[in-house]
């Protein structure tokens, strides 16, 4: 493969070797390819005789009006998805090739036109070695299609906004209006446009081969020449702005100037003669600039024939050196591959070490977080237990105060009831005493026996009253004793409830201490 690349481009062996050596340190995807284009190198080297000049058509002078505009890319038929191959290194090979061809054509008028679909007439410029450029008008400018000698598909399509580079049926590069190579992801966003342009370019090339060539209307070209010149100048400005493009052009410029010298002179003379004819308002005979191109082509052919003989001799002498260079390149590639393998292995090991370190750091950090969380939980549990104990104590204290107050109220109520009963008894006794005294005074004069009986009755009633009072006092004492017993039982039940609650809290604290870890000495809590 290396020998094929070096031998397939005579005169470019050093450049190809340089590219191969530079690529030794890079990995290429399966669908990538070298950007040292074989057809382009062959064109510069002129290994075979150049084809004859194209059959250019004389220009028409009738006023045909404005040309019919081609559909915009959005209105083109949908096409099959296009494959994408990422270039390796020389991203500007495609746009620079088209730019150099455009520079060689300059302001020269088209060689011919041909009928295409919907009344569109693309214009064609065809070099002496069969490079082609088609241009069709669209809203906003022109759309250009560039073809290699004998090619059925384009190597570049340009619209007023982007340029699309192709290798066979694969899209390899997309350039924006300023000549910048779009990044991979951004370029993939224009796959649909690239596929439609590719399909139209293939169909347009087929139509151009199958149909008769037509004459270009001179006044149309005079009116549209400035727009096409502006597109060419825009590429010149973009190349000045893009450093990578300038570096690529510097590597190709000498050979390109030599290759396109005769074509450039012929096109410049054609542009000058057309401008002179335009100033004469297209009166008089039409200038036949193709004849001058033929004479220049014969002289260039003679020079190139001699250059080919000299080049073949140099190739024969360089064959041995190329074989040695191939072996050195292969050896360097093997060594570079070994170094890449070692570097990848070391990188994988370093990645594994970094991942282990990160996992260890994460585990340590998680352990610290868990420890802090457990300590916080223990503190929260202790605070919660203390708060619960304080709440229970406050509740017990309030309960004791309420019970004491209730006892005082009941005692006071009982005293009040007893005092009221004593007052009633005293009042009743006073009434009875008064009644007896009245009865005594009334009956004083009556029988002594009645007085004795009354006296006896009074004694019995006092005794009965005393017995009743004694019975009432005994009942009150028993009631007070029962109340005291009830109060004592309530206090005992409260104390037992508090003891059970404290025991349950102590058990929960012990369970939590066992769950937290080894038992630790605890301070006696008051």
Describe the structure.
It is a single chain. This protein is an alpha+beta fold and 526 residues long. The protein contains ten helices and nine strands. It has helices spanning 2-7, 13-23, 38-45, 93-105, 184-188, 191-210, 218-241, 243-279, 289-443, 448-516; strands at 83-84, 112-114, 123-126, 132-138, 141-147, 156-158, 163-167, 170-175, 213-214. Strands 1-8-7-6-5-4-3-2-9 form a nine-stranded mixed β-sheet, sandwiched between helices. A hairpin with an 8-residue loop joins strand 2 and strand 3. The two termini are 93 Å apart. 21% of the residues are buried. Mean pLDDT is 83; it is low at 1-53. Residues 416-432, 445-457, 482-512 have a biased composition (Low complexity). Residues 285-526 are annotated as: Disordered. Residues 1-22 form the signal peptide. Residues 308-326, 334-377, 434-444, 513-526 have a biased composition (Basic and acidic residues). Keywords: Signal.
């Amino acid at each position: 493969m290396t020998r094929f690349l070096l031998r397939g481009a005579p005169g470019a062996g050093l450049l190809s070797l340089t590219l191969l050596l530079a690529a030794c340190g890079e990995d290429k995807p399966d669908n990538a390819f070298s950007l040292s284009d074989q057809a382009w190198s062959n064109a510069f080297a002129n290994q075979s005789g150049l084809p004859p000049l194209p059959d250019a058509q004389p220009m028409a002078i009738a006023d045909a009006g404005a040309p019919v505009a081609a559909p915009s890319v959005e209105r083109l038929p949908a096409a099959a998805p296009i494959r994408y191959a990422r270039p390796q290194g020389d991203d500007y090979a495609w746009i620079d090739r088209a730019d150099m061809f455009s520079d060689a054509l300059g302001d020269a008028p088209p060689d011919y036109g041909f009928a295409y679909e919907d009344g569109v007439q693309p214009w064609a410029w065809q070099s002496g070695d069969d490079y082609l450029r088609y241009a069709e008008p669209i809203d906003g400018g022109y759309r250009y299609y560039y073809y290699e000698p004998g090619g059925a598909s384009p190597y570049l399509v340009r619209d007023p906004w982007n340029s699309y580079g192709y290798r066979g049926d694969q899209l390899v590069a997309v350039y924006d209006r300023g000549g910048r190579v779009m990044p991979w992801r951004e370029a993939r966003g224009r796959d649909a446009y690239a596929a439609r342009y590719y399909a139209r370019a293939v169909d347009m090339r087929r139509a151009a081969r199958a149909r008769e060539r037509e004459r270009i209307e001179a006044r149309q070209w005079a009116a549209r020449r400035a727009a096409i010149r502006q597109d060419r100048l825009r590429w010149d400005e973009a190349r000045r702005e893009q450093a990578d493009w300038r570096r690529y052009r510097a590597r190709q410029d000498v050979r390109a100037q030599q290759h396109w010298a005769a074509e450039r002179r012929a096109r410049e003379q054609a542009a000058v003669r057309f401008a002179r004819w335009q100033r004469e308002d297209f009166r008089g005979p039409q200038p036949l600039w193709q004849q001058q191109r033929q004479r220049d082509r014969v002289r260039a052919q003679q020079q190139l024939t001699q250059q080919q003989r000299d080049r073949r001799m140099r190739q024969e002498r360089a064959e041995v050196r190329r074989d040695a260079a191939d072996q050195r390149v292969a050896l360097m590639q093997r060594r570079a591959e070994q170094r890449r393998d070692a570097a990848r292995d070391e990188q994988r090991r370093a990645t594994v070490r970094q991942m282990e370190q990160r996992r260890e750091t994460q585990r340590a950090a998680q352990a610290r977080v868990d420890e802090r969380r457990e300590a916080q939980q223990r503190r929260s549990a202790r605070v919660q237990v203390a708060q619960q104990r304080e709440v229970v104590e406050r509740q017990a204290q309030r309960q004791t105060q309420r019970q004491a107050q209730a006892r005082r109220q009941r005692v006071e109520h009982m005293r009040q009831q007893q005092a009221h009963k004593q007052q009633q008894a005293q009042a009743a006794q006073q009434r009875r005493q008064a009644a007896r005294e009245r009865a005594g005074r009334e009956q004083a004069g009556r029988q002594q026996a009645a007085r004795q009986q009354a006296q006896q009755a009074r004694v019995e009633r006092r005794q009965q009253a005393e017995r009743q009072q004694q019975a009432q006092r005994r009942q009150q004492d028993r009631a007070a004793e029962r109340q005291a017993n009830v109060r004592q039982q309530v206090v005992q039940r409260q104390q037992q409830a508090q003891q059970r609650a404290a025991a349950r809290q102590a058990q929960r604290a012990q369970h939590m201490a066992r769950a937290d870890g080894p038992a630790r000495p605890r301070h006696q809590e008051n």
